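Try this one yourself first.
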């Protein structure tokens, strides 16, 4: 099902990366949760946790939601359940990102109350040899 999502959303599907990263989500809820949607399973959602001083505590990131049958209203039901779970866990804010070309999915999230932020996401992969000199003389408070 993840492969289907990647094809529709035009993401690279990397089975090895998935095999390395998915067990941490399935073994507990320290990093986030995986939802299986419908009976029989008709989709999935992945929600992960972060922490921010700016947000005032725990943040949630809806990393992926994929529903095969969009006509049944399952997406709206799932989003409502996810937001309720995030509230129950004490999350202060829920983030998500959409592809710039996907106006339809942005309208779906806007109907649920999400708004476009002024922030611009940036990323740097730390898995691909993108290393800089880390000998700065600094250390973390915890280590």
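Now uncover the answer:
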């Amino acid at each position: 099902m993840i492969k289907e999502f990647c094809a529709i959303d035009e993401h690279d599907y990397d089975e090895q990366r998935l095999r390395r990263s998915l067990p941490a989500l399935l073994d507990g809820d320290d990093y986030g949760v995986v939802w299986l949607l419908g009976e029989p399973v008709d989709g999935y959602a992945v929600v992960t946790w972060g922490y921010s001083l700016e947000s005032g505590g725990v943040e949630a990131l809806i990393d992926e939601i994929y529903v095969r049958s969009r006509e049944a209203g399952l997406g709206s039901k799932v989003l409502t359940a996810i937001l309720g779970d995030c509230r129950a866990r004490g999350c202060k804010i829920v983030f998500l990102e959409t592809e710039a070309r996907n106006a339809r999915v942005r309208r779906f999230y806007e109907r649920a109350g999400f708004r476009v932020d002024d922030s611009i996401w940036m990323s740097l992969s730390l898995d691909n040899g993108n290393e800089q000199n880390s000998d700065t003389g600094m250390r973390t408070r915890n280590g």
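Discussion: Residues 74-88 form the longest helix (15 residues). The CA atoms of residues 35 and 129 lie 33 Å apart.
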